[in-house]
Amino acid sequence: MLKILTVASDIQGGAGKAAYRLHNSLVNNGINSKMIVALKKTNDISVIGPTSKIQKVKALVYPYIDRFFLKKYNNKSLFSTNWVPLSGIVNEINRINPDIVHLHWINNGLVSISDLKKINAPIVWSLHDMWAFTGGCHYSDKCVRFKDSCGKCPILDSNELNDLSFKIFKEKQKLFSLKKDITIVSLSKWLFELSKNSQLLKFNNHINLPNPIDTNIFKPHEKKYSRSVWNLSENKKYILFGAMGATSDPRKGFKELKEALSKLKNPENIELLVFGSAKPHKPSDLGLVTHYLGSLSDDISLVTLYNSADLMVVPSLQENLSNAIMESLACGTPVVGFNIGGNSDLIDHKKNGYLAYPQDSNDLLKGIEWVLNNKEYDQLSLNSRSKVLVEFDSKIVSKNYIDLYKDILNKKSILNS
After folding, report:
1. What is the CATH number of the domain that holds 197?
2. Contact 346/321 with Cβ under 8 angstroms?
3. Which of 12-16, 158-162, 238-242 has the lowest mean pLDDT?
4. What's the N-to-C CA distance of the chain in angstroms?
5. What total number of domains does the chain contain?
6. Domain shared by 344 and 410, yes or no
């Protein structure tokens, strides 16, 4: 039986949640799949985490050690070093001895760059952002220095050629020259093009496969019931916005959303739902009633929330393959977002939502009003659900991953024969 080991920092957050969903879909397909994480926050026996107090303390300390190397820099967004081999997780991976090791988001000190080459099994690496082929940033903004060798990193606010990003880039270069059996999975067409043309990964095998979603969980429900769960009015129109750090991370586009909402016509009948962020100490005046719902960790709450909304807005300035967009569409709720990253993999313009010109808050407003006032709204909702059923349902996607694993092992067998 095929033996797969998924490695991810956790089962929460966007990447961790996607990794756990794939792991579960493999189990449901009869695959011997295990998952190893930095800190275990589930009772699922197929998920492996640190067991002793010392291991748990170490796991809590790793992220701080990882960030220690950033002390001299003024990094403007998320930057990971994965510099120090402290976790010992590779020993556990090799002890389990899987056929394939499937890496997802491995930052916060989970697996060091130097440790990756010590993994015995072939690696499949799902890219949830740009980190694997940059000198440490997760999203490069407008910088393209990863096409050469990084250095003078704008994310670090650095003018030094031989800065931390350059050193990490060179360390990764050594890794990919020594560990040849790494297959790169890009979750979106956008990231697929970037990764296969990057300096670090251009010699690797690349494939474009999305995250899966369980459409038996994320599905349409009666709007009246869903709104009653959240104490929302039956007669209002609701716009949903959410992400980790929804209002604090500039990349999530809260500024652009704010600009768009300030120009809404007839805002007295429209309210905003925000999840992923607690209510700020001094909340922005968005010109309409705003409900801050905090972080939501369970799928049932998310499903009722998606079903409460008339549309979801995802105004991210850089995005790979958004879980939030996929979840919303699966629930039959159309989505408006900028035409960036992997958004066009999910949103079919004017069929299940609206793709606005990048960073153009006026066009974002146009999209919001187009959905809210659409006479064919029911068809938009049906199209939203259909898109996910055909392209992203876990039964379909998991089989594609299983085919990939088998293909890798067949090629390995031929090489060794």
Report:
1. 3.40.50.2000
2. yes
3. 12-16
4. 20
5. 2
6. no
Q: Is 218 a member of any domain?
A: no
Is residue 366 pLDDT above 80, yes or no?
yes
Let me know whether 329 and 259 are in one domain. yes
The neighbour count for residue 231, using CB atoms within 10 Å, is 7
According to the model, what pLDDT value does residue 10 have?
76
207-252 per-position pLDDT tens digit: 999 999 999 999 999 999 999 999 999 999 999 998 666 566 677 8
Residue 300: which domain range? 223-391
217 by Cβ neighbours in 10 Å (0-12 / 13-18 / 19+) ranks as: middle
Q: Token pair for residue 309?
A: 């909304």
The angle that helices 394-416 and 13-28 make with each other, rounded to 10 degrees, is: 80
Rounded-to-integer distance, Cα 341 and Cα 360, Å: 15
Whether residue 234 is found in the same domain as residue 85: no
CA distance readout (Å), 157 to 76, 107, 163, 221: 7, 21, 10, 47
Tell whether 133 and 194 lie within a shared domain: yes
- Cα(393)–Cα(257) distance, rounded to whole angstroms? 29
Q: Kindly state whether residues 56 and 131 are assigned to the same domain.
A: yes
Helix axes 299-308, 323-330, angle to 10 degrees: 70
Read off the pLDDT of residues 142-158 as tens digits, 9 standing for 90 and up.
899 999 899 999 999 99
> Are residues 285 and 160 part of one domain?
no
> Residue 337 domain-assigned?
yes
Distance CA 339, CA 359 (A): 9
- Among 16-20, 59-63, 135-139, 238-242, the minimum mean pLDDT is found in 59-63
The candidate with the shortest Cα–Cα distance to 211, out of 26, 417, 407, is 26
The answer to whether 241 and 316 have CB atoms below 8 angstroms apart is no
Residue 217 counted as domain residue: no
Tens of pLDDT, residues 265-318: 888 899 999 988 777 777 677 778 899 888 887 888 999 999 999 999 999 988
Are residue 294 and residue 196 in the same domain, yes or no?
Answer: no
C-alpha span between 288 and 143 (Å, rounded): 36
Residue written as token pair 């026996």: 45
Query: At 31, is the pLDDT very low, low, confident or very high (cuts 50, 70, 90)?
Result: very high
Count CB-CB contacts under 10 A for residue 109: 27
d(CA 15, CA 93): 20
Cβ-in-10-Å burial (0-12, 13-18, 19+) of 117 comes to: middle
Do 56 and 178 reside in the same domain of the chain? yes
Query: Is 258 domain-assigned?
Result: yes
